[in-house]
Amino acid sequence: MSDTSFDSQTREASFGDYFALLKPRVMSLVVFTALVGLLVAPGSVHPVEGFAAILFIALGGGASGALNMWWDADIDRIMKRTQSRPIPSGKVGAEEALALGLALSGISVIMLALASNIVAGALLAFTIFFYVVIYSMWLKRSTPQNIVIGGAAGAFPPMIGWAVATGGVSIESIMMFALVFFWTPPHFWALALFMKSDYSEAKVPMLTVTHGRKVTRQQIFGYTLLLAGLAIGTGFTSLGGPVYWAAAVVLNLLFIKGAWTILRRDEEVAEADNYAAEKSFFKLSLLYLFLHFGAILADAVLMRMGVTFGGLL
């Protein structure tokens, strides 16, 4: 739970410190997948409305990050990976982070609903609630399934973008949601494998802590197979096209190969080479999601160019 004692260590914060509270790297993924969802949806959105929608979705993602950092300030101080974050490092007070997160949450939800439609606004509100309350306050510290269930929070943005354009939900937006949802466990569990003692010292029940590294490797492989099937299945919807099919086949073969390599390793071998295979798989997972959504967008652009220029495709 958040520890307001960090406030006593706080110096005057800069703009960069407050911006860091919004988790800009996570926000970039939110913005990109939401933008793809908006652009590939049927129909059209006025550029001004589209820009405003993405801006408010980004603010909502940033609000979630600030509220997560407020709540997790105590364990962030323990984990080496998070000790330099604004609150545990004493750059921003916990109460300031809470106020910023709440303010941005209200602004982003209300303004998105006004700028687009109530469905998009409601989805953004639920996303913030899910990430802060369901994941951060409940799941993260209570179950090794924290990443599995909590991954839904990061999977909603493409659905929100789709809803901005259509006012609803469809099989295509659900498939984009599922791509992010099933990608999340192997992505984070690979990180947990080479972060070693961080989660155990912070008493976060990550799968590596509660069930061991061997089980984690097995789960990574299992979820990778599920993800590959889902990615291929997405190609059979209107999201699929030649670019997507090429990307999906190549990327999922590489992802399965990487997961298989991780599965066969034991800890002595992994530690001897400083978890090189696990780190490589983690880096591939970042590229994996970006290229899948990029391929979806590329096919949508090519299709529209074909229609615009007399059916060249």
Descriptors:
single chain, 313 residues, mainly alpha, Tetracycline Repressor, domain 2, 2 domains, flat, disordered N terminus, UbiA_prenylTrfase_CS, Protoheme IX farnesyltransferase, transferase, membrane, EC 2.5.1.141
Q: What features would you describe in this structure?
A:
With 313 residues, this protein is mainly alpha-helical. It folds into 2 domains: 1-168, Tetracycline Repressor, domain 2; 170-303. The chain is 75% helix and 0% strand. It has helices at 15-21, 24-40, 47-71, 73-78, 94-115, 118-139, 146-150, 152-155, 157-166, 171-195, 198-201, 207-210, 212-234, 242-264, 267-272, 276-308. Helix 2 (24-40) runs antiparallel to helix 3 (47-71) and helix 3 packs antiparallel against helix 5 (94-115).
Fold blueprint:
Layout: H1 15-21, H2 24-40, H3 47-71, H4 73-78, H5 94-115, H6 118-139, H7 146-150, H8 152-155, H9 157-166, H10 171-195, H11 198-201, H12 207-210, H13 212-234, H14 242-264, H15 267-272, H16 276-308
Helix pairs in contact: 2-3, 2-9, 2-16, 3-5, 3-6, 3-9, 5-6, 6-9, 9-10, 10-13, 10-16, 13-14, 14-16
